[in-house]
Structures
1.
Amino acid sequence: MADLLRQLLDSGKLSDETCHSILCGLSKHVDTFHLSKTEEEVDGWTSEEDEQLDEEYCRQFTESLGFDIDGNVRIPACGISPVFLGANENPRSEIALYGRLGVHCFNIDKERKLKYMRIPKYNIQFPKAMSFYITVDVKDLADNSAHTLQTLVIRSFSRNGEHLRVSTGICRIKPETPEGDICLVDEKAIDKFYRGVMPNFVSKQGAVTDKLRFYEVQEQDICANDWLRLYTEFALFSLWRYNEDGFESCLPVEIKKIIVETCETHREPRLKLKSSNAIFHINFSAKSCDYKSVVRRTTDGKPGHIVLEINTWKNDQPSST
């Protein structure tokens, strides 16, 4: 059935919303008929046990903000389901991208240099969007110290004609005691210039006329900012988002050219890369194919919040949405 859904999504005959509704409906039926439990477990359940398990789930969710669900509780319909990875087990490529995005967002906010190491576990929730509560092992390159980072990444439906939209709600070092709450991105607080319909791709020739707003990224910039490769991999993933095997088969990406567009002013042109809100026009190749992509990065100014809206086309396709 998964293959059929992917074919329908890729052909445009099935929307993201309909696909998610189908998946949510299936999960509810599985829960209704106890298909995830053995017959003995179903017969042994009582309403008191159900209530106790639900209370424990709620306690774990409240105390950890959804990051630490131990897997022994009964997960309610549309609840958060934990996934634990072994020491030598890697997450799906999509999850790894989201984990790296969380590290990137934290580094921007705190001006740190944490390095993504691995993901030992993550939790998934499928309500109106796909929410991923990801735990990431990181290393601080300043002193080689190890830390645990927690990030909430949400993949939501298209709002502005973008192929892929992801945002972060939390990016933090795991606290020793429970603290804080979940605060999602405030769309109205984003600069108006970066809201609305996604912009078209801008070539180098188009950027030459306005050097105050555009900057062509240099090779040393790409070497010094590995998150530019992350953005490029997101650009490729936006085309293969329903076919992870296809995405992985196209890696690695080769960056050809990046032009940054921003209304923020800086002393030096290359500092445009650090703009809170910016649009990245990326030319890249993967598996002998050439692509162009528009990646719009925005924030509402609150710590732990970043939004990526992405459109990608093969070079022989028109860059309009």
2.
Amino acid sequence: MAPSRESRRTVFRQIAQLSSVDWPTYESSPLFDRSSLSALESDVRLVAETWFQHDDHETVKPFVRAVPLAYVQFDAHDRYAGSTSYQMETLFRLFLLKECHGWDHETALVEYLTQHPDLCDQLGLESVPNQSTLWRSWHHRFTAELQDTVQTVARTILIKAQNAGVSVPREPDRQTPRHGDEHTESDPDNQIILNQAETVTERVSDVAFPAFSLDRGEGCEIHENAYWDLQTYLGLRENLAVNEGARSFIHESNRKRTPLGHAHREHVRNLSIEQIRKMYRQAVSRLLDRVAETEEFFRAGIVAIDITEGDPFTGDRAGHEDEIIGTKEKTDEYAYQWATVQLVGNAVPIVLDARPVRKGDTRKEIVKDLLDSAEAAVHVDNVLMDREFDSQHILEMLSQRGLSYVVPKRMQTSEKAQAKRLLKKGKDRYETDRKLHLGDNEWHSTTLIYRRKEDSEHTDHQQYSVFMTNRKSGLLTEYGYRWEIESGYKSIKRFMGATTSKDFGLRFFYFAFACLLYSIWRAVDLLVQVQLTGEYEHSPIVTADNTLTLVKKETGIG
């Protein structure tokens, strides 16, 4: 069947409901914009995977015609300055079609368009471009980067279609370079991935979970691993509380004895915050040692520090005012808050440490605490944080530790005035050195970088963002990596068991254990990718659900 309005609507509704991704990608970070080719490639990868899963989508051509491109700004990749007969978006689709078919010359594309006038109408072509026009457009109008994107996107479309059982006009190249001339399959099918993931998950679980202990003494009838099994089980079910989960767990587990809900809660409540954090750091250390066996793991580089909060707390918080605190948005709501430090950038995004946030905790204390843990586990070069950590004392501490940083700055009167001047002059970027007062005639030297966001909804000085850094401005491009911690939080919260308890330790344990499950997932994905392809790409090929299901299987749940 041909794609219909309803089938297209179904595809994009499914994409909108994905909790672990932001689409389109350019909206996920202030450092991406509508001209970013890497964002375009990521978007096509996501849409193609969902599109070809639909039963009505049986060929590649309709996808080439329908893939969303209206938001993409091709001007930055158009080497022609004057008026032209064909829009860049239309030409992009034409060359995408050519690449999907593997035609070496434009003549084949011209013949195909001539034989398919319906496609020309759908692409808005009043006439078929001649061969010389297409040749000049590709060789003289498209930049080399845009040509690479066409080839990358076409390969992605063919692989995603073939993986979904859709017929393709040519066999896609599934080989990627590895160690010189060696090659290996880069996009293995789902069954191969699952088979490999099962083996890897067993090894990773055996590494991470032994770090956790309830210290119950000897002679207990219920094995301690049953408690971690139950906690993992809660993470597999959305909004599943421990009492109901324990009852279901009895039937789904292959263990002879499993803990009851109240017993599970009681043992977890006996754990102090420091005990939980110590066990978590030990588990992550063991996990890092395991993934460090691969040369693709970067045990150094960039970390992001951030604070997340639970759902707004609507009950009576009397006696818990220091733990159930105001939200970050300064509303009249209250919530539990947790802080984490996570590897980002080229490294596998493992959460290195987590801690609760209490009333009275300063941002400097939080950053120092988490950095101490991070630097004990990996070598840290750069630190990324959001504007709630905009403090000269935090920045000075980072510099004293020999670390680079990028932090957005809250716009005060002077920054607003500068942004207005830049807007009046039509400048998109501006750098200036600034000294921030530390007190007692001491100062911290930093660089302010003003950056204008092209697709901003604002028309005044609010189009500009201001960043602070103590290194060259090129480091600013790395700030986009900080958004990985935001997307990570979405998955982490999915892995948390539900509870209405006000017990602070229990609440934190649920969050920390979810961070561990997330880190296990990303570690398993890295190991599977390396074993199957010889490389590591940041986009997971092993799903979170598959990993947790395998963890469930390996830890004793039937």
3.
Amino acid sequence: MQNQSSAPAPARSVALQPATARPAAIATWLFVVAAMIVMIVMVGGITRLTESGLSITEWKPVSGVLPPLNQAQWQAEFDNYKRIPEYAQINSGMTLDGFKAIFFWEYVHRLLARLIGSVFALPLIWFAVRRQIPRGYGARLTAILALGGLQGVIGWWMVSSGLSVRTDVSHIRLAVHLITALVTLAGTVWTALDLRALARDPGARPAGLRPIAVLALGLLFVQILLGAFTAGLDAGYAFSSWPLMGDAMFPAGGWHAGWSATRNAIDNPIVVQFLHRWVAFAAAAGLVWLALRANAAGGKGAGHAIMTLVALQILLGIATLMTGVAIHVAVAHQVNAALLLIATTWAAHVVGRKSLVVS
């Protein structure tokens, strides 16, 4: 009778992958895409802070790639802008040169979005045609592409909210736009890390998402959501002192008595700023816990990155308030949030891969 220990081991996933698979190359490509997403998050922050987001009042996914090329085209764009409430109520004295300044950032934002779409879609088609995508990753990469396309639709949905009645975009739609971008970023980085592991070990399985990672990522996304509400409501301008809001932890009259708690937490600038100030420390605690777990799992780089970026993010948040939302500080705060998300995704992946080894 054959000894059970001498039975052939189950086939590993290496036998299931096509010989043409190139996980390392695809991982590198995805890291490039992730860097571009961080860049567009930065440009999006500048666009918002310079109040440039409503300068282009039409959505032309193809023809819009070209900016105005002559005086007549510039004047036509400016005339379109003059028809919306933001011009009539806020910028009625704006000159054509002033319009060109705000047009620049919105145009760059949209152009970069198109570029990211191309940088993702064209190599994806190339890898697919050449059968270089490892088995099990085609659907995931397609889902990331779909998220990118959805982001374009959400972006226009956001802009359209400020073209008829309002003088700014809906802060809720702004939050959806930012969160979708960051979910796409996290998914891109996670997939790249899975593929990098597969390149090193052809039998590697995708990492799992552990409860501590779900907690840390959940807290981070809640804090980012509150940050988007703060930005969209201009809540950062409500109080520029720290740690008190004026002369109290929570200012008298800051709670809108006629609103529900939910509406206060979403629409009341004072409450939103208060929540954004203090939920930050709950998020920091969850992130530090994840960092410690990552360190224990052998991912000291990820753990140290979280520790550093959490401390920097808190300091940048305080500085943003105390400088009266200085553009360069506020943009750094937003970019650092994206970098912190990358570090958190990295640490979550380390912990998830460690659990596979243990199991």
